[in-house]
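Example record

The entry below shows one chain as it appears in the dataset: sequence first, then structure tokens.
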Amino acid sequence: MSDLPKPNLEVPARPRPRYDLVFIFLIFFTALEVATSYLQSGLRIPILIAIALVKATLVVLYFMHLKTDHRIFALFFLLGLAFVVPILIMMTIVMPGL
């Protein structure tokens, strides 16, 4: 019985995310949002939406750990977005003044 190999119970090490770099990028994009808000161009809103999407992606991937967790969690997150985004679009169309 002692000739059997012992099972390897060690969990493979994952590289730790660089939260400090993500935080610096979030600060940079926030400053970019503030600077963009002073533009008088018609491109102001699309630029602000794009920056907000980049910031939201960074938060979801790193601080919600969807980048390193099992893919099923990302699937649940995307399913939730698939339900919420059409509702928000419909609300924007039906109630434009809000």
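Notes for this example: The chain has a mean pLDDT of 88. The helical segments are 19-37, 44-63, 71-94.
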